[in-house]
Design brief:
Number of strands: 11
Radius of gyration: 22 Å
Helix content: 40-55%
Largest sheet: 5 strands, mixed
Order of helices and strands: HHHHEHHEHEHEHHHEEEHEEHEHEHHHHH
Oligomer: single chain
Strand content: 5-15%
Strand order of the largest sheet: 6-5-11-8-9
Amino acid sequence: MEKVLSARFDIPNSHTLDVYLQHGGYRALQKALTEMTPEQITEEVKKSALRGRGGAGFSTGLKWSFVPKDSPKPIYLVVNADESEPGTFKDRPIMEKDPHALLEGMMIAAYAISSHLAFIYIRGEYWYLKERLEQAIEEARARGYVGKNILGTGFDCDVIVHPGAGAYICGEETALLESLEGKRGYPRIKPPFPALVGLYGCPTVVNNVETIASVPPIIVNGGDWFRRLGTEKSGGTRLFAVSGHVERPGVYERPLGYPLKQLIEDCGGVRGGRKLKAVIPGGTSAPILTAEEAETITLDFEALAAIGSMLGSGGVIVMDETTDIVQATYRSIKFYEHESCGWCVPCREGTNWLVKIFRRLLRGGGTERDIDMLIELSDNMFGRTHCPLGDAAAWAVAPAVKKFRAEFERYVQRRVSVAV
């Protein structure tokens, strides 16, 4: 199985520039700056079918093409390293073990969109990774891969690492931009989209860490090569962060279109030989799958969308037969209630009411009507909030209630009280 993103993870000192160069590092940047125009790079990325790895799955090359070519304003590239959704930790090894892959991808992307200043907005809890990235930037700047006159081509681009304050909402691209400007991380209403009006009111491309780190191999090997690794519409490989009830949790690189059942087996299978009960395939915002769905689905954007779920951030959470789905779902909605910025009513009030109903059920005072209200509330939140946090909360609840309703009804019938 071909490794693209994790090929250097197990090499000693893989985070250093010398090791990166020994294993083909910065060849893609040399090729991009000396043999390709910005338009050719964008077309190659489009051809690769590289889709955003942060959650939305939007075409990366298409997003780059939205940036105006004749902008009188500066153009910015912002890398979203605010990895904070429960179950999601796949960007961390890239920044920790292969930071130059990210920097090389950033320089190529910056050249493609005519940007001369790029930012890495990193989760505040990843402070040690901020230092690792800054060391890599210094190494690259000293050897001419970042900064002024990169590789003697006349192209300039520098990088700034900016830590966030640990707010989940700042992973949403417009809230991230507000935070980067020094303001409270409230989402902006779209349109206008960041490609036209982004950081400081200037055209801005916001891409995820894994997305940008996928760019150098595309430039070296070609877009067609990368697309063939995955499916026709979901090109390449991606990193899956597998957690929960498997024998060997961790980060696994697999091609898009890979069977979810096989991925679980690659992780040693369900812990203790127990039966699989459910899987959340893309971070807690992705609608939950039953064991039957998980055993037949493939991991790509189209297949999961077809059954009402999504690939999201690639955080695969496995639950065995001992899992209490009601309590597990309560944990998720409690997270979204805590992380709601409170700006819009459906999210602020909706998440709060969902938590109240869950607590009533878990404390033995719930009714059948409460179960229906969980679905009604979720339906009324979905699509009615300024940013996707409200949708994420709704997705975490409604599918769980519909697919595992019997478990919710048991709390009503038995009136068992658990600590919450």
